[in-house]
Structure formats: C-alpha cells, structure tokens
C-alpha cells in the first residue's frame, strides 16, 4: 500500500470541498489499496457525516452510511433487499460495510485486481484478457469488446428491481438519479463505471413505496454457500391476485456488467397465471442478447432457472426437478 493523507470531515460541505477518495466501511477500498489497484494520495474518512437513518414512512429511505447488517434486519425493509444483504459477504463485513459503499464497490474480476495484467477498467486501452482467458465468472449481458466484468453488488440488484433512486450531494445542492441509470455499460469506456461526477457524494437511497413488494425474494446461486459472489442471482417481487400475476419486478445479478433489469420477463409475467409453466415461458426471454464467452455459457440457462426458482418460491410452487 502506498502512503496517503487521511482527513475526517464532519460535514457534507467539508467533504465536498475536500479532495481525494471517500472512505466509509473500507471493505472494498482498503483491499484495492493494498493491491495497488487504487493509489489515492488523499483519503477522506466520512463516517462522521450525518448520513445515517432508515425511514419507512412512505417507501424506504436509506442513509448512505447505514451499515448493511442494520438495514438487513430492519423490519420495514422489503424482503428482497434484506435477503440480498444477508447473502452478501460475511457477518463481520456486513457490520462494517455501508450501503453507499456497497453500491460503489468495484468488480471482483481477477484481471482488474492483478496490477501485473492489462485491464481496460484499471488502465484504459490496455486490453481485456478475460475475453479469451479465465472467464467462467464473467458477464454474458451488457458486455463489450473492452470489458466483460460482472457487477459484484447483491443489494444493487434488488434496488434496481424496485426502481430505487440515488441522491447525490454536489457543491451546487443535490441531484437524484435512478439507480438503473446510475450504472454505466462498459462500451469502449469501462473505466467510467457510474454517473458519479467529480466532487459528488452519495447521501441516500430512496425506494418508492410498493406495498406488494412485501411478496419478494432474492435467490443467489454461487459456488459455495457463504462469502462468495453470485454466479447468477434474481431479485423478484410479485403481485398475484386470483392466481394470476398482476405486476412484477425482476432483476438479475452475477450475469451482467451492471445490475440487470429484466423488463421483458416482467412484461411476459403480467396477466399470466401464477404457475411454473407460465414462469418458464416468461423466463425464456431472460437472457435475450446474451453473448457468452468460452467458459461461461452455462450462465444463460442458469439465469432462466434462477428466475423460475425465485418466482416459484414466491408462489409456493416448487419448480420441477428441484426436489431431492
């Protein structure tokens, strides 16, 4: 780790006026600094800023410095958010990591984290060795010639499904951006990962009120049961009445370069019977546009099965072949 200057602002204005990289829980930043992937000269510890609070009065408001573990166990949090958080990292890390920091975490692509290797996210124009190298865990959706790295956040998938917005403090006031639009597809500039502009700071996340999102879940498929990133995940909320789907929210993780909203699946579900057969039909369009690489083609059928599994979980209709 290279030397750096550490400051600790106590107001948002002071933080915005300062220079350098913001430190909240540090569960991603410190790792990358140790690897020399990130080498900030100035770090601002923002934990003294008044950016906490969980408000469920009308929808959900989450202060950016709320810890993942506190949000996960709050009774007013939608189940898909709570389950996404509880399946992230370890309990110790959830106690440290902030919600805002989780949304800003960097990809776990091994090429990005290895400074001896080229990586367009870390060193623009150097290349993407994952395209022809070890790519089993990489993305099949939203990729480009320049980058195929997956987005690592679990809770971002749930928040995208629920139309969450992120509030950003600026020196001129604040602005609000839909989380779906906050993340950038790689195209030919994968080093530009989001819409956070220089001098801005995430202050809160806002989830619109959606009463039927009480019927929601988050299903995560991974190589081991704990402390592992998703090979595929699905955040699903269903409004079911008279055995038919009235509305749905569906997003996927572990398969795309950004949290991936499955609007085509949502459209296919609306008006359909709440049966496994209808869920299979709707999930058949989940991987439209996928571009699998040499070792991750399995993610295409896995995405469809994960979506069906989540839908069946919400309707207590166990998918065929899942028993035993």
UniProtKB/TrEMBL annotation:
Q: Which SUPFAM superfamilies match?
A: CO dehydrogenase flavoprotein C-terminal domain-like, FAD-binding/transporter-associated domain-like
Query: Keywords of this protein's UniProt record, alphabetized?
Result: Oxidoreductase
Q: Which Pfam families match?
A: CO_deh_flav_C (PF03450), FAD_binding_5 (PF00941)
- Annotated FAD-binding PCMH-type domain ranges read 1-212
Coiled-coil residue windows: none
Output the PANTHER family linked to this UniProt entry.
OXIDOREDUCTASE (PTHR42659:SF1), XANTHINE DEHYDROGENASE SUBUNIT C-RELATED (PTHR42659)
Per its record, how is this protein called by name?
Answer: Xanthine dehydrogenase family protein subunit M
Could you tell me which species this protein originates from?
Pseudonocardia yuanmonensis
